[in-house]
Amino acid sequence: MKTGAMERKVGSAIIEIVQGDLTREDVDAIVNAANKTLLGGGGVDGAIHRAGGPAIIEECRKLHGCETGDAKITTGGKLAARHVIHTVGPVYRDGKHNEPQLLASCHRRSLEVAVEHGLKTVSFPAISCGVYGYPIPDAARIAVSTVEAFLKAHPTIERVRFVLFSKEVQAVFARALEALPDY
Ligand code: ADP
């Protein structure tokens, strides 16, 4: 169920913040908060592989992992989403180990990969906000501002949704989107 959805126009594109289950998104690609092995994990990663079936992990095995801040694409398998873009968020230590730059890079690289594949609708989870421990208000600010900047420069993407599992995280992302300066 979606509650308190909110959105913001960026040129002709839309950024949307919703509460929900990322694995149910019917979009060109969902972004997976993966780990460097790309061979599966817990949290949203586990949920994506469970829902998408073995075709995803079979493609992942051929990718030989992924660096933190980078992104790689596979099929969506049995998911409604056509593709999964796997990105590796930073593990949060104290904010002084390049975490903000790496988290921004995850969002930028995921959207670059989407553009390279002609994709127009992409849904993100709260990357690094689970076991990787990123403070959620900081992560939300970085996520929405990086996506907004990307959409301004790349008008082929039509819609980016942040799909947050909990109402609390969704509210934090909604506030971050609201707080972006007008332009
Ligand atoms: P990370 O290792 O990058 O921290 P996690 O998977 O532990 O990634 O958590 C990232 C975020 O994804 C958390 O806010 C978690 O609550 C959320 N999450 C877990 N499952 C789902 C899902 N099915 N849909 C959307 N978000 C999810």
CATH topology, what is it called? Leucine Aminopeptidase, subunit E, domain 1
Q: Which regions are unreliable across 5 or more consecutive residues at pLDDT < 50?
A: none
Order of helices and strands: EEEHHEEHEHEH
Shape verdict = globular
Which small compounds were modeled alongside the protein?
Answer: adenosine-5'-diphosphate
Mean pLDDT over the full residue set: 96
Number of helices: 5
Tally of distinct domains:
1
CATH architecture: 3-Layer(aba) Sandwich
Spatially, the strands of the biggest sheet line up as 1-2-7-6-3-5-4
Distance between the termini: 32 Å
The total count of strands amounts to 7
Helix content, binned percent: 25-40%
Radius of gyration: 15 Å
Describe this structure in words.
36% of the residues lie in helices and 21% in strands. It is of the alpha/beta class and 183 residues long. It has a single domain (6-178), classed as Leucine Aminopeptidase, subunit E, domain 1. A 7-stranded mixed sheet has the order 1-2-7-6-3-5-4, sandwiched between helices. Helix 3 (99-116) packs parallel to helix 4 (136-153) and helix 4 (136-153) crosses helix 5. It is globular, with a radius of gyration of 15 Å. The N and C termini lie far apart (32 Å). The mean pLDDT is 96.
Question: Quick summary of this structure?
Answer:
The protein has 183 residues and is α/β, with parallel strands linked by helices.
Which key terms come to mind for this protein?
183 residues; alpha/beta; Leucine Aminopeptidase, subunit E, domain 1; seven-stranded mixed β-sheet; 21% strand; binds adenosine-5'-diphosphate
